[in-house]
Amino acid sequence: MAQIKAHEFERLIAKGLPPQPIVLIYGPDRGLVAERAANLVAVTKVDADDPFSAIRLDAGTVNSDPGRLVDEARAIGLFGGLRLVRLLGAGNDRGVLEAVAELANNPPDDCLVLIEAGDLKKGTGLRKLVEEAKAGLAVPCYADEGRSVNELIDSEMSSAGLRLTSAARELLASLIGGDRLASRGEIQKLALYAQGKDVVQEEDVMAVIGDASALSVDAAVDAVLLGDVEGLDLSLRRIMASKTSVFLALQSCLRQFQALETMRASVEQDGKQVGNVVAEQGRRVHFRRKPALEKALAAWRMDALGQALVHLQAAILETRRRPALEDAIARQALLALAVRSARAARSQRA
Fold first, then answer.
1. Domain boundaries, the chain
2. What confidence score (pLDDT) does residue 345 get?
3. What is the pLDDT of residues 143-183, one digit of tens each?
4. What is the pTM assigned to this prediction?
5. Of 46, 173, 185, 311, which is least surrounded by CB within 10 A?
6. CATH code at 2-140
7. In this structure, which topology does domain 147-209 adopt according to CATH?
8. How far apart are the first and last CA of the chain?
9. What pLDDT score does 144 carry?
C-alpha cells in the first residue's frame, strides 16, 4: 500500500522503478498524467513499441472483458524480462475495478501494470482500490501552481541558458499552470523566441503569449470590473479570433466575483480598507490587475455582488442548455455586467 504526494514523484523515480507492480497515475491535469506515465515508462527501460514487451489497453476493452487485463499482466514474455501493460482512460467502471482487484489480490510477476486515469474522488472506486492494495502505488497529478510552476520555469529556462526578470517570471507564472504539457510548450516557445538574449523581459513574455487566450480573458474580466464596455468588446473579439470559447471569460468572471464577494465581506463586516483587502491577496493577484480590482471592490456592494453571481450562474447554466449559442450567451451576460459595473462606479462617485 503506497500513495505519494503530487510533488514527490520525481524524487521517487530518481531512485529507480517503484517496487509496486500496479501504479495508478491520476488527476485533473491530463498533461501531467501523460508526462509522468512517460517518465515511468522510461525508467522501466521497456521498449514501448515492442509488442512482445509492451501492451496498451483502453478502459472500454477492459470494462467489457476484465480478464484481458489479467491475462496480459500474467503472460510470460517471449524473451523474458520485465513486461509493461498500460491501461489508458481508466475510471470507476465495474469491469476495470474487477480486473484491478484481481491483480491487487494476486500481483503479477515481472510485469508493471501502469494505469492512467482522470480525476478520481478520494476514498472511492479505483483510487481507493489501488491506494489500499499492498501491491499498489497511487500518484496524483494536480494542476501546477506555486512552487511546481516556478520549478518548471526554472528547468526549461536553465536548459535554454536564459534568466527571467522578476516581472517576467510573475507574468509567465500567471499565464501557465493548468496543464503540464501546455505549460511546458509555452515556456519552450518563449525560450525559442528569446534565443540570443541573456535575460527574458516582461515584454518578451507579452510578445509570445500576449495574444494568448489567458491574457485576453483577464483583460475581459478587468473590463467588466471597470465597466469598460468598449474594452470588453475588444477583448471578446480577440478571444473569438484566437478560436477560444468566450465561455472561459464567463467562467473566470464568476470566479472573480466570488472572490470579490469574500473581499467585500471584509470591507463591510470587518471594517477593513479596500486597499488593505486587495493587498492581502498577495501574489494571487497580478500587480497589473490590482487597480481594476480595487475600483470594483469599492464600487460593488454585497447585495449587488450577490445579484451579479446569480446572473453569471444563470448564464453558465444557459450555455449548457444551448451549447450552440454559448459564445452569444456569454458575451451578452458579460456586457450586461460591464454596464452594471459602470453604473455602480458612477453611484460610488456621486
1. 2-140, 147-209, 213-349
2. 78
3. 655 567 888 888 889 989 999 998 888 878 877 766 677 78
4. 0.53
5. 185
6. 3.40.50.300
7. Helicase, Ruva Protein; domain 3 (1.10.8)
8. 65
9. 59
> Per-residue pLDDT tens for 74-103?
988 767 789 999 999 899 999 999 999 999
pLDDT < 50: residue spans in the chain: 211
For residue 346, what pLDDT is reported? Answer: 81
Q: What single-letter amino acid sits at 323?
A: P
Q: The C-alpha cell of 332 is what? A: 451578452
